[in-house]
Write a structure and sequence with these properties.
The protein has 122 residues and is an all-beta fold. The strands form two sheets. Strands 2, 4, 5, 6, 9, 10 and 11 form a seven-stranded mixed sheet that branches. It has a four-stranded antiparallel sheet with strand order 1-3-8-7, with no helix packed on it. It is globular and about 40 Å long. It starts with a strand and ends with a strand.
Amino acid sequence: QVQLVESGGGLVQAGGSLRLSCAASGHTFTSYTIGWFRQAPGKERELVTFIAWTGSTYYADSAEGRFTISRDNAKNTAYLQMNSLKPEDTAVYYCAAGLLPNLRSRATVAYWGQGTQVTVSS
């Protein structure tokens, strides 16, 4: 089983930046596609981005051009760099891992982190 622990969330003003981290343990990190989902109050949990073991990445339209996902396999850690943050980015951000090279659906997620709160003030 893979354990995922997120960190790096917090309160930031609109236009600011945050860097989230997802530390993984339990299995070979390189075998998994790693992604980030988020869930805002009253909304469904939605995919933000993922990076597959193939090296391919995906970004939701809301994140394209502002967010960057990366992974450091030597450190068993994935990152989400978030720039130009907007109030609508406010949500709990969840790290996720899956066995398939596609993570565009919650159904493909095998493991979830506990989440980290990101709040963007106007």
